[in-house]
Amino acid sequence: MNPDDFSRVRSLWTHCGLPSRPNGRDSEQHIRRELSDNTASFLVAVDPDETLIGTVFATHDGRKGWINRLAVDPRWRRRGVAQALVAVAEAELRRNGIEIIGCLIEDGNDASEQLFVTLGYSRHDDIHYFTKRDRPDI
Ligand SMILES: CC(C)(COP(=O)(O)OP(=O)(O)OC[C@H]1O[C@@H](n2cnc3c(N)ncnc32)[C@H](O)[C@@H]1OP(=O)(O)O)[C@@H](O)C(=O)NCCC(=O)NCCS
User: Fold this and answer.
1) Which one, of 91, 96, 88, 98, lies nearest residue 54 by Cα?
2) How far is the CA of 135 from the centre of ligand 1 (A)?
């Protein structure tokens, strides 16, 4: 991804119904800052006409890696695009010495759950996600 892709990325997420935080961590300002940071890899997939059809953001804090904002245009689903994006994201994280990678999946997102199980991820029903937010929309 380069900073000029920002509006195309936002449109794809809307088209895919992907929840995001446009006034928080998905704001243009926030993403531009992350793009200049070497702990984040923001990857996009494009079709042969250079139309943007997929996104994934790989981030890490030096301890764990995270797969974020994975989305594929509905017209391109079930063709291995997400699988390819996650493979590249994982390779980027491993290149940075990261050996554990997680992702957060909303309850009921069966497609995503099935995808990550297929890719070798384990579900942890014994872990509850707690957050502390400086503002509600971050
Ligand atoms: C989840 C999502 C990213 C999958 O993208 P995709 O490009 O269609 O996925 P792939 O083609 O790489 O699928 C690889 C494997 O994952 C599993 N899978 C993917 N979508 C699936 C679905 N709808 N139902 C069941 N299994 C699915 C299958 O095992 C699939 O292999 P197969 O097609 O050979 O059976 C896509 O449906 C999407 O963008 N959803 C909306 C946004 C979203 O929920 N993102 C994830 C947030 S955590």
Assistant:
1) 88
2) 32
CA of 82 to the centre of ligand 1 (A): 6
User: What's the gap in Å between 105 CA and the centre of ligand 1?
Assistant: 12
The pTM score is 0.96
Best CATH choice for the domain 3-118 from the list 3.30.390.50, 3.40.50.970, 3.40.630.30, 3.20.20.190: 3.40.630.30
Q: Which atom of ligand 1 is nearest to the CA of 83?
A: 12
**Of 18, 15, 21, 67, residue with least CA distance to 40:** 67
Task: Quick: pLDDT tens for 78-131.
Answer: 999 999 999 999 999 999 999 999 999 999 999 999 999 999 999 999 999 999
Which residues, 6 or more positions from 68, have their beta carbon under 8 angstroms from its beta carbon? 56, 57, 58, 59, 103
Structure tokens, 129? 């996600």
67 pocket-lining for ligand 1 (C-beta < 6 Å) = no
